[in-house]
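Blinded run. Sample ID left blank on purpose so nobody reads anything into the name before looking at the predicted structure. Input follows.
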Amino acid sequence: MSDQKNTFEEQLKQLQEIVTKLEGGNVPLEDALNQFQEGVKLSRELEQKLNDAEKIVAKLIDKDGNVKQLNPEDSNSPEE
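Blinded prediction complete.
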């Protein structure tokens, strides 16, 4: 159900929908387990996207809090 190509916002909405369904308590056990697994997967993907974004922001801000210019090759790989 989850797809790495979905935007952060789309994945977050999917996760919120899963949480809402599970909180409702009217989900059969097997479906609840599947939904829970999907929610965990989405949560991990979202966390990775946030970590990647944080690395990019850290590259853009120097120690004094000034914004630096990002090189085009840096935007493709947040890893150092």
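Unblinding after everyone has recorded impressions. The first helix runs from residue 8 to 24.
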